[in-house]
Amino acid sequence: MKAIRVSEFGEPDVMRLEEVPDPQPGATQVVVRVRAAGVNPVDAYVRGGAHTRRPTLPYTPGSDAGGVVESVGTEVKRFKVGDRVYVRWSLSGTYAELALCEEAHVHPLPERVSFAQGAGVGVPYATAHRALFGRAQARAGETVLVHGASGGVGVAAVQLARAAGMAVVGTGGTREGRELVAREGAHHVLDHRSPDYLEELAGLTDGRGADVILEMLANVNLDRDLGALARFGRVVVIGNRGRIEINPRDGMTREATVHCMSLFNVAPAELDSIHAALVAGLEAGTLRPVVGKELPLAEAARAHREVMEPGSYGKIVLTP
Ligand code: NAP
Fold it and tell me: Any idea what DSSP says for residue 136?
């Protein structure tokens, strides 16, 4: 099969399309024919070599995919050859024609969800779910600011919060991105490139502020987030790309909490529960991954450059 291989950490061009042996499933494993692979920022951090996770070289990137079961091990019970599935983790990497997975890391893909959309579920939706419910303990009736709502995690968070009965405010940096955020369920949309947009948030909440802020770029926003919270508000740091100075007094006066999260820390049983909720949402149509761009697998380097650029519009996926 063809697969993207990384033989040294470095710039996007270290990713090469190569011929490698087809994977064979062990007893508890499934091989999935990848119809689309999701591109996440973490794939780019890992490829660059700066992430705490450093796979043994050479490796194939990617954890997320939508596809069809190609073969199953002798002990596999939940799937048979031909089933439509999405993948949340792969032993061999999803930037490939075939992906080897543990049965537990594969989930049914409802008919109404395309393979490309299925490639956008794993990391983004599990992260948004964990942040909103696991960390912030957000409840119906609360106001949630999705700070960076136009990308993979942001769109997922908007849909999850809206379906759970929260008042949703989302931000985007481009007009197209903001239109997407509104279409996917935000009650109000703000422009995080405009200077005074967080003052508008105060106006939208009668001066109370947001109960929960899901933060995609904490090194830019965390200080102002603390000032934009309601009393007893919670920030969840999801994305961060540098350092920031904060004024703890803003948190103090509100008795605010800053939660941080990493999907890598979530226990397997909790991830199983999260994905059970995600499958239900995909079936019901409350969760609708948005694919902004499909690129051929051979253009993985371009996908990695673009996923790190501003102007997000849902997910970028690679098609073998
Ligand atoms: P993505 O699809 O590239 O989206 C990035 C988002 O950040 C876009 O909505 C973008 O908006 C927004 N953004 C850019 N500048 C911003 C600003 N000044 N203020 C607020 N938002 C801003 O990435 P993603 O997959 O959604 O992931 C988002 C972040 O979370 C990434 O840093 C990623 O590494 C991280 N992440 C962390 C975990 C974890 O476990 N902690 C898991 C998944 C992802 P515009 O492009 O419209 O400006």
Answer: S
